[in-house]
Specification:
alpha+beta; 3-stranded antiparallel beta sheet
Length: 181
């Protein structure tokens, strides 16, 4: 009887922990429907590369900053494409407003660094898969970091940012949206 009670208490504790898991979402994308303004601003994409709004909750205890990536693993023959990189986002942030990922980075929280993605510029670049390539997956990942600043070399590549964020993370939250043309 006691062992059954202990098991029940442990199961409830595990469920309670899962119920407050670190989460990220975007109110900008619903049922994989993207407003044209969020799409890439290169010729043929039809968008303006206005970054999607993001919201997160329940970061791990001890979080001192965040790093953010948006990656399309289906692009470039499966090699992938980096759409958005930002780090040193203060722990006080609970999300990013629509348009915060502009090229200038002026709408990002103070101290945030915007990295250079696949289009060779800092800031958000919206979905823009080649016509006929099917639906692409856009994985937005937020890393909760134990330090106020991500340890990276100067002018890090997107891969370096991703590896550094993963290695320094207390936890991570991801959401995946799809888009095809």
């Amino acid at each position: 009887m006691i062992s059954r009670l202990c098991f029940t208490v442990l199961a409830l504790a595990a469920f309670a922990t899962q119920a407050t898991a670190f989460e990220i979402s975007s109110p900008s994308v619903s049922n994989d429907k993207w407003n044209a303004k969020y799409l890439g601003d290169n010729a043929g994409c039809g968008g303006k590369s206005v970054s999607i709004a993001l919201a997160w909750k329940d970061p791990p205890a001890g979080t001192k900053s965040y790093a953010l990536t948006m990656f399309d693993p289906d692009a470039n023959g499966g090699k992938g494409f980096w759409h958005w990189l930002a780090w040193n986002i203060p722990a006080s942030a609970k999300g990013l407003a629509e348009g915060a990922g502009s090229k200038s980075g002026k709408r990002m929280p103070k101290g945030t660094v915007s990295g250079e993605g696949g289009v060779g510029r800092a800031g958000y670049f919206g979905p823009c898969p080649p016509p006929g390539s099917g639906k692409h997956h856009y994985v937005v990942t937020l890393y909760a970091l134990a330090e106020a600043k991500l340890r990276t070399p100067d002018n890090p590549s997107p891969e370096m940012v991703s590896v550094a964020a993963k290695s320094q993370a207390l936890g991570e939250a991801s959401v995946t949206y799809t888009f095809g043309r």
